[in-house]
Specification:
By secondary structure, this protein is an all-alpha fold. The protein is built from 11 helices and no strands. The protein has a single domain, classed as Hypothetical protein af1432 (Orthogonal Bundle), CATH 1.10.3210. α3 runs antiparallel to α4. The N and C termini lie far apart (about 55 Å).
Length: about 210
Amino acid sequence: MAKNLQPQRTQRAQTHVKLGPRFFRALAFAAEKHKGQTRKASSIPYLAHLMGVASLVLEAGGDEDLAIAALLHDVVEDCGGKPMLREVQRRFGARVAKMVDGCTDAYGEPKPPWRARKENYIRHLKEADGDTRLVSAADKLNNVRSILSDYREIGEVIWSRFNGGREGTLWYYRTLRDEFLRSKPNRITRDLELAVCDLESLTEKLRAIEQ
């Protein structure tokens, strides 16, 4: 008998997800709060990133609450701190607010130093629940894919966009990859592993050319 070579889906991925009015209210809320914001050093509306993260979460079988948290995962950090977190809880519930809080690494300006902030966030992830880790991993996957695409287009100048520069940024995404892989793998963490490996390979290739 031939073996079934189709990839095994998780129970979460088998669940039919119905997006209702709450999701579309969250999309409008995110669009309003992030209005005028763009991705780093580009004219791409920041909402594109938020929708990309929500898409990854839904494709991995996340439910409506996870998709809403994906849309709102940066709203506390970028649009109002703790008062915004309270508004998210009031509008969308405690579960969504908990995930959004879990994806936040700073609550106001000025933000703590970059390296310390990222180290604290990685320590926090070790204790985070599975829902928060899924949304966070989707966020990081979307980021790495964006870095890869731009890196292929503009090369080493891309690192000037990031507070950690080349070495710090690579350290951060390698460490995140390793942390997410401590849990049972899912399609997001597997794709993140591949994307980080691609970024490392591309970096090494361009380093060799430079030398």
